[in-house]
Amino acid sequence: MSQTLSIHHIYLSKGHDFKGRFGKERRNHEVSEVESVECVAGKGLVGDRYFGYKEDFKGQLSLMSMEAIGALESELGLKNYRRSDFRRNILLSGVDLNALVGQIFRLGAVELEGVEQCKPCFWMDEAIGEGAFAAMAERGGLRCRILRGGILGKGQVEMEVLEKHDG
Predict the structure, then answer these.
(1) Are strands 36-40 and 150-153 parallel, antiparallel or unpaired?
(2) Which residues form the MOSC domain (predicted)?
(3) Is the dihedral of CA 67, 71, 74, 77 positive or negative?
(4) 108-135 burial code (b ≥16 CB/10 A, e <16)
(5) Amino acid 1: pLDDT
(6) Which residue spans within the chain are E strands per DSSP?
(7) Domain spanning 2-14+29-162: CATH superfamily
(8) For residues 89 and 97, is the Cβ–Cβ distance under 8 A?
(9) Which residues of 25-62 are buried (b: 16+ CB within 10 A; e: fewer)?
(10) pLDDT value of residue 22
(11) Contact 60, 45 (CB under 8 A)
């Protein structure tokens, strides 16, 4: 059974701001918002920092829900930040992303495996606002492998779970 979701934002960054930066200052690589992106099986998103990062990488694409972002904005009183600061590739609404951990699903023409929840890092308090690191627990998004490539674009998209793995 499929359901209709909405893709609100698609972000790409050519570099890492936080990865490997413990005890150092954040880098500030530009984040670009695009209308659509090419998803390449086993590689990632064309133009993103994780494209071709390593074989079988579990974060070839990251998703975050607008519902979680709205809750964080309300709880933390967030005003002066950019949604791209979450460092997730695709912000969408209409699905419980945590329920997709361990599932193979189709988003439009792209087939994904939901590998694990995105765990926030301590940098989120600096990037988003005080308290963001703790508040993002269990709602930081979903890391995915791309099993079959295609193009994802902003707007409505059909999602269908193809395989359920219960353990």
Answers:
(1) antiparallel
(2) 32-162
(3) negative
(4) bebbbbbbebbebbebbbebbbeebbeb
(5) 76
(6) 2-13, 31-33, 36-40, 44-45, 61-65, 90-93, 104-107, 110-117, 142-148, 150-153, 155-163
(7) PK beta-barrel domain-like (2.40.33.20)
(8) no
(9) eeeeeebeebeebbbbeebbbeebbbbeeeeebebbbb
(10) 52
(11) yes
Question: If the chain, 167 residues long, is cut into consecutive pieces of 10 residues, what is the mean pLDDT of each piece?
Answer: 94 66 57 94 93 90 94 86 82 96 97 93 76 86 97 98 73
Q: Tell me, what amino acid is at 79?
A: K
Asked if 3 and 99 count as a contact pair (C-beta separation under 8 A), the reply is no
**Residue reference for tokens 């309300």:** 74
Burial class (CB in 10 A: 0-12, 13-18, 19+), 12: buried
**Residue linked to tokens 């413990």:** 22
Instruction: Write down the pLDDT at residue 21.
Output: 47
Instruction: Give the pLDDT score at 129.
Output: 79
Tell me the pTM: 0.86
